[in-house]
Amino acid sequence: MHPSFRKKHVIKLLCRFCDSYVCRRGMKAVLLADTAVELYSTDSPISGKVSSVGKSYSTKKCTCKICDVACTSCGNILGYHVMLPCTSCLQSCNNGHLWIFNSNTVWAESRLNQSATEMLKWDSLPDAASEQDSELDEWDNYFQEMECCR
Ligand SMILES: [Zn+2]
Ligand SMILES: [Zn+2]
């Protein structure tokens, strides 16, 4: 990943329509073509929380093959997934993230480091594969806590 991305904060994303978490490793991005549009990108959404819908298509901008991505909890479209990046996008400076969420369809929340003392940055974030495991642990702990409170 390009060094300029490593200093960015890690962001958690929630669906604006139903408040469910769809991503724990988001990054704030701005479309080069239209700097007024705020977007969030990720290398890996939470598995099962979003899914691609409909046929793939290309925009006028380039020949990337993309498809819409919807929240699996409520069905609303949240953004898009680049299924097949075009050569010009691959060659330009990008963060390698192929999932894009619109800032008007998701809520963003800063993610804290493990001791919750400061905001987590991308250079201290574990890769997506090892993250999936720790995510399960976190959920287990969460449910155990709930159990105690009852
Ligand atoms: Zn492209
Ligand atoms: Zn939703």
Automatic annotation (TrEMBL):
Family to which this protein belongs: Belongs to the FAM72 family.
Provide the species name.
Patiria miniata (Bat star)
Transmembrane regions? none
Instruction: Note the Pfam families from the entry.
Output: YPEH2ZP
Task: Write out the GO cellular component annotations.
Answer: cytosol
Q: What is this protein called?
A: Protein FAM72A
Cross-referenced InterPro entries, in alphabetical order? YPEH2ZP
